């Protein structure tokens, strides 16, 4: 894997966890991670469980113990690394957007095809169970002919004019702003669910045209800013209308200036027989409307896509125990481990378990006697 | 760890992932797992990454390469295992409810205290970031004196009268039904957030009093049922009113007969200065009301507890990328791995990346030229 | 009608509007209104369209041009007035709760029955279209056997300890606090939708036990308070568990101390085949779950109970134009009337209409020419 | 008033009710209503309380007992009637959209200005209290500089291809389809809240290009259709992007093909300091986000715009008793009136009141005795 920040963390975690949940035959081995800063990449490798590390991606590609190159670097380096990997006969998994330009993208595609290596791009939102389920409904004809999609991807993390010119706001590193970062996700969801685009009419805007420069290192944190400012060359917002090949029409809006929306990746699709609605921030739910529901009880249903029959869901937890449920356990184990470090029983412990039991028994006794029961009455039975 | 089913999976996952996200000094080692069915426990050990397995929990406790015993067995065996583990000098982490009876719970507590081992009980819902944040608000006085809690834990998985008499419906194995399984969680959340109970008045009900017996194996699936039926001795629903030591009052309802509610673990707490509301099925959100908000703009706020300052949240993803976000990556990697198995590029691949890029560029061109741009116009530039 | 405050206003409005919407044969005539304060009742009569007024309810009852006596006075006077009206051969429509005590209620019922007059009580929430529709679903068996009801009526208007001891907090005037005011509504909805109560276990609490006395007049406003305080004899909150004759069980909570809940009259009912949920603050919606929905698309549907087939709905507006829609017109007409008073065209006026038209035409032109169109380009065509 | 269908009903109701709620000095008198079908207009006049009627709008305008002409006819006749009314010295209140073309609109504006009469246009959604409150927030600078508006008006009433070619789908009568009917509302809300439009890029689409012709009468019901079909010349959907004079940008979508959305008139506005969101189907609520809320408790608040300080709200009901609350009374009075017609006490009546009282007393007794109390125990006290 080349790169180890936000996306590197998400990819690493997925490689580690996939075989825990699923019964895949091929099991990923986290062979090597690569980054230019030796100390940082070494730490990342240890933290995330990679067996080795490299500081030059060319060295990584040259290794013959590696089958797949995963590219999670800024957009500007995707093409060079991917093509080199393909030329070296490695399978390639690349972060989105694939490239800085269509011309680059075509060269990348040509390279993987010529060298006969497998390739994948990380449009991860396709893989939310609710999105896959929406796809199933559409494919099975439950929505009929598609008329509309309206997709938004709303964020607000750079609204402060003092937020600095980090790499994600750099034309050189990213090619665009909200457009390639956010609209690219909505475009992929639309292609996945509705079909191919035919034509578009767009509008791009940069609201804050000058921002403080970052001194030294860059990064999402944007904490280290200088007193100098520089011009912003990427878009803060990208809006467009679209016509699809199948006659559907759509509105798209990607912005980093929608206050109060931290990660509002949402869509609604309307077909002749039904509609679906999804919101990433409630990712386990799909709202579904069927026109053939009987009169008077038509309405959007909120479906928790966590049943055994929902895509990917059987690998995880029982119905209603949403994806994310397991994090309550991880967080609890943090406390457990801290307790072991300190030699102190963490809360909740057996004292809590005992007091909980006292309440449970008081309720049972109350239900049986049909009167109020004090906890002290229960506890005194054993004191 | 003793046991390896639903809870065993959740615990195992937490041990594996904790050091990936957090900077704990003590790192859990998954030394050994224990179960009576040798084939099944062996498979579980491999699947979940345990280094060895045992088929007798006494053997597990006897091993000196183990510091902590994690008990995820049915309730009826908690006391015996926990006390034995404590006697052997092992730290003990136990599933909830701690015991079948208050008397058992007291003996368990006495055992860990006498043997000076650390102990913890798995009330995992305390550790949702939104719940911890609610606790912070209460502790800091933001809600003032607490007047009310209303807590429900609503499920619907046994509403079919033909659903069989699985072990979770067995008085011998569990002690109670919804009461110990669900109400115990609400009681813990109430103790955590409001304080100690003073007295209660309860009602317990079994709606379906006779169910098909399970032949052979038992389990949540309940698929294998026989033609014979047996009486249900545990409650389907448990309701109670409560008074707390600090003067607050509460209503509690736990049921497995609330159709449409898959896992409705919810509470609302009202204090003199504010209120909080939480719903497990939207676990990243906390609704908060502050009475001192200025007049006319008072209302419940929906807070996405994913900011750096929210409890545990900094270990995970950027704001709005809710806990669970990483599963889109895991699901994607399943497809990637399947592609490698089959020797086919999975979707989305570089073809998709290229087409996405074409749309991105068409929008940019449209925005620049202030007219509609066909995708074919863009693609033909490079063909 | 005896009384003319909050409830008097709601009743008067209903008499005025019923024949506008519905095709009833008997048309209410607002013959006379009654109150002790002559100036205030005269003003109320004029404001609300009553043809005459009285200052003594005995005089009202004595009039032979009146068929129906509507009692909207504080609870303490219901019995005396209702019984006198019945004795005088008048039909009686009474505010809820019917009486201060069951003994009073029984005497009132005996009086109307003995005198053979018609009688009705104002449990108005039964008549929300969504509640009536829930009743239809239950009656038609769509929910099957009822297992659960959980009903809350949550308000927060007296949480300030400095809020004075108004008549609604007076034991003498009202008999109880939240109990008779709010729980009475939930009890009626439960009787309407679930059936008769069998037994109950309750808890009543007064959180603020001493409040400032009101000097002079009383009333909901509570603005005029004195420096003296007095004890509060009514409940701030009333909670209870219930068993119904048909085997259903329920939790009920009425409180004036649930911060952030202005008028949270809500219920959820779970039956063997389905569930319904309602919230007065979203009164046009009913959430409905059907267990026989096909697997994987089960979920609560949000139904806008405004279709022609929904109870009462056909009398009002087209689907989705919720009850309340007409108030946008009332508010607009206020501005229109103010404009006439001032001799100024109110906003929006024909200037707005013209500018709106310019945008509409610019969009049409843009859609036709497939390029951006400036508003000035359109406007200049006619300048 | 010229016209008496859907809009005629809404306007008539507003004239009748305005003085009931508000303290305006000028009180509307419903002098005369006008329509071509004598029987229908006579019935409408009686039903809605107009003192007289005319069958020729020229006759209406010629009357000297009329000060204001209210035009609720199809769009094609607005200009002719409005100009004639202005020439006759009448004030004019006109339905939206003002005209069929900008040219007509300019002539209408010129006519009212030349004749010095007052004029208003019915963009009623401005007058929802929540929308007015949004306006107040924006005007007071609480949202700061406006960046975005995204407005949708989604309906679904003509999705059935067999729905006939009613007058609202006629180019001659209406000029356009969703565009003038729905987008005109969103444009007005945007002008009201954000400011003047600068330029637009649009897309209009007709999904169903041929529909059954209506035989004989026309109308929204569309029930009477013939076997012949005709072409649809108006748009089913209208989408556009916009730039505003103040630098804000927007997306707009109006459609009658968004299944499951009965009347989805919604907008979200994002400014540098805050955001607001509104949905007509929850018209009493405004979601508000303030960027200057303290860290960790930022989130959209759901504000019930029913407090005394909210625009227009003081004229109606107490906080939380949303606009529409009074309809529960109207619907109840329908039952009361029906009871009088039939000579039967409607439900709920004094029997219900008595039974309700029994439950209330049982709860009180239970709370006092701290044990369960059967209803029969209470009732038997007085039998």
From TrEMBL, chains A, B, C, D:
Keywords: Oxidoreductase. Pfam families: GFO_IDH_MocA, GFO_IDH_MocA_C3. GO terms for molecular function: nucleotide binding; oxidoreductase activity. This is Gfo/Idh/MocA family oxidoreductase. Residues 132-277 form the GFO/IDH/MocA-like oxidoreductase domain. It comes from Halalkalibacter oceani. Residues 1-123 form the Gfo/Idh/MocA-like oxidoreductase N-terminal domain. Gene3D superfamilies: Dihydrodipicolinate Reductase, domain 2, NAD(P)-binding Rossmann-like Domain. InterPro entries: Gfo/Idh/MocA-like_OxRdtase_N (IPR000683), Gfo/Idh/MocA_oxidrdct_glycsds (IPR050463), GFO_IDH_MocA-like_dom (IPR055170), NAD(P)-bd_dom_sf (IPR036291). The lineage of its organism: Bacteria, Bacillati, Bacillota, Bacilli, Bacillales. It comes from the Bacteria.
